[in-house]
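Quarterly update, task 2.4: flavin-adenine dinucleotide-bound model.
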Amino acid sequence: MDFSFSPEEESFRTEIRSFLDSHLPNDWNDRDTIGDEGAEDGSLARTITKGLADKKWLAMAWSKENGGLDATHVQQMIYNEETTYARMPGGGGMGVAWVGPALILYGTDEQKEQYLPKITNGDDIWCTLYSEPGAGSDLASLQTRAVRDGDEWIINGSKIWTSGGHYANMGWLAARTDPSAPKHRGISTFVMPMDAPGVSVRPLPNLAGEHGFNEIFFEDVRIPGDSLVGVENRGWYQVATALDFERSGVGAYANGKRSVEKLVSAARDEESLVQQNPTARYELADRWIEVQVGFNVAYRIPFLQSQGIIPNHEASVSKLYGSELSQRIAGTGMHLLGSISQLRPGSPYAKLGGAFAQQYMTAVSSTVAAGTSEVQRNIIAQRGLGLPRG
Ligand SMILES: Cc1cc2nc3c(=O)[nH]c(=O)nc-3n(C[C@H](O)[C@H](O)[C@H](O)COP(=O)(O)OP(=O)(O)OC[C@H]3O[C@@H](n4cnc5c(N)ncnc54)[C@H](O)[C@@H]3O)c2cc1C
């Protein structure tokens, strides 16, 4: 079995690295942060996004007809890996990752013409409007209503945990269009301008004090009739496909690799860390192995796509393993750095800039976002192993 990348793929990886080197500040790699570059004002993200759009790299795996480069899915994953590892600000976000691919599969020609170019040139920022207070794992129970009124749809209801809802200008919405049908068969998907009258956004800070997600309220929001994407009342199946796109990322492994490298380098520089915590060496060795395993799990997805197979339970395997690994890595960081690891960013005494205190708290939600670990295990048990429902 050949696990190596082709010479073209390797040279593509080099090209991305040199793009990143030339666009990121010189000291970027030495900064003691791990996740997003939250401290930047957004201008670097905008410059980088435009630079990527000019090279047609934002949605490189899309067809040329849709504004991409016809790049292979493996190339797309190499791009995702390198840009995540480098903590690159900006990029195509949800628009490129799953809204665009869903529009390509289910949208009308007019919708593709209207929305795809603004995704591939980085102008539109999308958020995902699925979860509700009473509908998370059991998403098909969602209650937000879309009612047809002449040439328009009227939307009423609310969404929760909407990542980036405070800066997105477009939303990918799932709403109930037929309340009398069985719950999976009465849902449709819509494109929702986030500045439509009647849409309001309330911030929801997370446990680490960061503002990433929001509550969104819809009060008699009117959107044009042609905002419906795909076939009315078949939205559940479109959402399920879009979720598979969402779960097949390499981000957890690229971030994990960077974090483990930071810890290894701290342990080499300061021997007392390992002397005080001898088992931390074993933990680091385990995390390093798990990151390597994770990359293989992740790259299996584009390999299947290259064979014309839409990954399903395979995407859940990658999502489950990656999100649980990110929690183990954060735990190893806390263990290795000792009690001082609890100091947050901003403290002059914090080690590695307090990044692991932050990561330890934010990693809690990784096994909830995009479907909980229990939901992923159910999918793997049923669709991967053919086990009966529990
Ligand atoms: C960081 C983050 C970002 C998010 N971003 C978005 C976003 O942008 N847009 C969006 O729409 N949503 C978003 N979400 C919401 C996310 O999709 C939901 O939180 C998730 O689907 C779980 O739903 P819930 O919170 O309602 O929990 P629940 O579904 O109420 O689950 C509660 C517990 O019950 C367990 N459980 C539920 N059903 C089963 C079952 N059948 N078998 C076994 N156990 C079960 C769950 O595993 C969990 O432990 C985000 C969440 C997080 C944490």
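Highlight for this quarter: The two ends are 36 Å apart (CA to CA).
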